[in-house]
Amino acid sequence: MYTNRPVIQVKKTLFERLFNMVAIVAFFAWMVYLVVDWASIPERIPSHFNALGEPDGWSSRGFIGVILFIGLIQWIGLSILERYPHVYNYLHLTEENAEWQYKNAIMMINVLKNSIILFFIFISWQSIQVATGAADGLGKEFLFIFLVVILGSSAFFLLRSVRKR
Known about the structure:
Mean pLDDT: 94
Domain DUF1648: 28-72
Low-confidence stretches: none
Order of helices and strands: HEEHHH
Distance between the termini: 21 Å
Number of strands: 2
Strand order of the largest sheet: 1-2
Shape: elongated
Helix content: 55-70%
Protein name: DUF1648 domain-containing protein
Transmembrane segments: 21-41, 61-81, 102-122, 142-159
Pfam families: DUF1648 (PF07853)
Keywords: Membrane, Transmembrane, Transmembrane helix
């Protein structure tokens, strides 16, 4: 299926390396915080929020680990996927534009994977804030911001890809 596509080794951009580093450092800093402060985290934390960012489901504090595990697995999976841009779906891929299309697609995956893990960190942090009474929820604007970042960045890179025929 992908035999006619060139397999090109694409070097990561400075932006991609920096964004990866920010996400990794944030993730491990959050893990250290959780280990150090585990005893002070309330036993019950919000595990679900409605569209207005209000908590409407509760679980044990161990649920934070589930959130972060899911975030880490998706980050690792998308990091692996970044290495194989020749297996993605493209419109009008040619020998002449393949390298540019691959770079664009890799950048899109990079932005998505790092944004998602940062959102997961924020959600787990905010869950603790709600459980301790320091916050009421994620905030009414959270869903809008999340959708703009995820769908907006996807649309941006897809539009760039279509324009670069």
